[in-house]
Design goal:
2 domains; seven-stranded mixed sheet; 12 helices; alpha/beta; Metallo-beta-lactamase, Chain A; 355 residues; single chain; disordered N terminus
Length: 355
């Protein structure tokens, strides 16, 4: 990437990492820069995540309920018991019943001793424009409470204050959901301008960003890190507004014409696409029998969607020790003749967050 392109690139809000690397259980941890919250795609083994990591999670997107995508639910639950928190899970039809079964495997006879009430909302994508939702609360022993699902646009698409979620219903052995998240707009903070003003970065920047995003009046007072405050108009030059970051996640799908078209729509123009590449290109017949993608198919889908960068994962253990080969095959299919995408980050692995 040229220096000119580097200068134009916005520092991303989301900093995703594969919890278990490219070979382990699918789980993608997506913390937000300068914010306390984080997102989680799939619930594979979550042991590599610290308690602090897990307590940041607010939304979880479950592609489907095969064990390697859902076994981490108990760890997530355990660290949140006794916390005043709402967790929102989004997944395919049947998710609410599965969450209920998980919760009801335990005895909750001591819930009256907790002051805090943990709420878990399970949202099911039943169709392109249909959602259903159930709430479970610690204080009621996690009894199921049907609730109105969030408003959605066709797709379906759910819009939350900090991001929107696009969902694709894809074909695996059953339904496997693909997801894409996008910020409405990206407010970029110019660090050099902060330094010129003697202002330290920190959580106060979220107040500034929110005010800019919401179009607040210029006389809106913004708290500063030194305990003072300044009007928004006097701070506006510290930021610039760019297109929001877009991240897509696709795993456990068959290589079909319909799936290829749906992935192209879902990931169109994404900055980063995480996509399964379970089998090597030479093992396409085995991939078809297992309803998974090859390295070549993953790269071709990323290229068709016009994404800036692709990160393949969910490699089959049969290719242990052959990561370089697998990455090269994806890159060859992704690059294509005459295309100019950013390369794969071959060092994107699991690990704990120090931020």
């Amino acid at each position: 990437m040229t220096k000119a392109r580097q200068a134009r690139e916005v520092r991303p809000t989301w900093h995703p990492r594969l919890v278990n690397g490219r070979y382990g259980d699918p789980a993608l941890f997506v913390p937000a820069l300068h914010r306390a919250d984080a997102l989680l795609f799939d619930l594979g083994e979550l042991t590599p995540l610290s308690t602090r990591d897990l307590l940041r999670v607010t939304h979880i997107f479950v592609s489907h309920r095969h064990m390697d995508h859902f076994i981490g639910f108990d760890r997530l639950l355990r660290v949140h018991i006794g916390r005043e928190k709402r967790l929102t899970l989004v997944g395919p039809a049947g998710l609410a019943a599965a969450v209920g079964h998980k919760l009801h495997a335990y005895s909750w006879d001591l819930v009256d001793r907790y002051e805090a009430d943990l709420m878990i909302d399970a949202i099911e994508a039943e169709g392109p424009d249909a959602l259903a939702a159930v709430r479970f609360r610690l204080k009621t022993g996690f009894a199921a409470e049907p609730i109105a699902p969030p408003a959605c646009e066709p797709g379906p698409r759910i819009v939350w204050p900090d991001f929107r979620l696009d969902i694709a219903l894809l074909k695996h052995h059953g339904v496997s959901l693909g997801f894409a998240i996008e910020e409405p707009r990206h407010v970029n903070v110019w660090r050099n301008r902060l330094e010129e003003r003697g202002l330290a970065p920190g959580p106060w920047l979220q107040t500034l960003k929110r005010a800019v995003t919401d179009g607040a009046p210029a006389d809106t007072m913004i708290p500063l890190p030194d305990g003072q405050a300044a009007p928004l108009g006097a701070l506006a030059d510290l930021v610039s507004i760019e297109r929001g970051q877009r991240l897509a996640y696709v795993t456990d799908i068959a290589d079909t014409t319909a799936n290829r078209a749906a992935v192209a729509r879902l990931a169109r123009g994404a900055d980063l696409l995480f996509i399964e590449a379970s089998f090597a290109a030479a093992d396409a017949a085995q991939a078809a029998r297992r309803a998974h993608l090859t390295t070549a198919a993953a790269g071709e889908m990323a290229r068709a969607a016009g994404v800036r960068r692709v990160e393949p994962f969910h490699f089959s253990p049969r290719y242990e020790g052959e990561e370089a080969r697998m990455l090269a095959e994806v890159e060859a299919a992704f690059g294509g003749e005459g295309t100019r995408h950013r390369p794969i980050h071959s060092d994107l692995q699991g690990g704990q967050d120090d931020g």
